[in-house]
Amino acid sequence: MNTPRIAVIIGSTRQARFADKPAKWLMDQLAGRDDMDFELLDLREFDLPLFDEAASNLWMPSEDPKAVAWQNKIGEFDGYIFLTPEYNHSVNGALKNALDQAYKEWNRKPAAAFGYGGVGAARAVEHLRGIAVELQMVPLRNAVHLGGGEFMKVSPLGANGDMSEVAEVLKPSLDSMLDELKWWANATMTARAKDA
Fold it and tell me: 3-class SS at 145?
């Protein structure tokens, strides 16, 4: 069987976003694994319009070339890690829009999450799981939550320290999430191959 290809999707597009710091730390951690291949996707680089198609691409092809390019890119992967902040108890608009811009490409693939913010983006991650179910993904139980005092150690709103200061707290959750992601990526790849 092929090695699962996993997209790490930065869900924030704000110029003042915090996401770049945990994204770099995450990619450094992922480089140590040889059981999955990872690629970082930054929503800033896709310049997606607000969803304005006649229907989801489950029902008809999308017309906007930027939406089609996004669909083609995410369709290359066997699973996803969403790096998400929490805005008003949910995912932010840019990430929700990116999820809405595709349908078939997400189907029957695992969705993992790394949330950051005051409560580790726990509510955003929970909303993300519900969205993933509707997109026929496999939302994972295990997630990484950078929150509370640990978040303030590394956030510009707090001490703005290096991610190494919270690595010991995050690493067990990350390892559990990645092991679960690997299992589901292999399982869904096998099932999708049988269907093909």
Answer: strand
Distance between CA atoms of 42 and 15, rounded to whole angstroms?
Answer: 12
Can you tell me the distance from the alpha carbon of 163 to that of 143, in angstroms, rounded to the nearest whole number? 17
Helix ranges restricted to H, 135-166? 148-154
Over the stretch 149-176, which tens digit does the pLDDT of each residue have?
Answer: 999 999 999 999 999 999 999 999 999 9
Structure tokens at 29: 């951690």
> What is the reported pLDDT for 196?
87
Q: CA-CA distance, 186 to 110, in Å (whole number)? A: 10
Say which residues have a Cβ less than 8 Å from residue 149's Cβ, sequence separation at least 6. none
Nearest to 170 by CA among 143, 192, 190, 189: 143
The tens digit of pLDDT for each residue in 66-117 reads: 999 999 999 999 999 999 999 999 999 999 999 999 999 999 999 999 999 9
pLDDT above 80 (res 44) = yes
142-164 exposure pattern, b = at least 16 Cβ within 10 A, e = fewer = bbbbbbeebbebbbeeeeeeebe
Residue type (1 letter), 55: A
Could you tell me if 174 and 112 are in contact, meaning their C-beta atoms sit under 8 angstroms apart? no
Token digits of residue 110: 């695992």
What amino acid occupies position 152? M
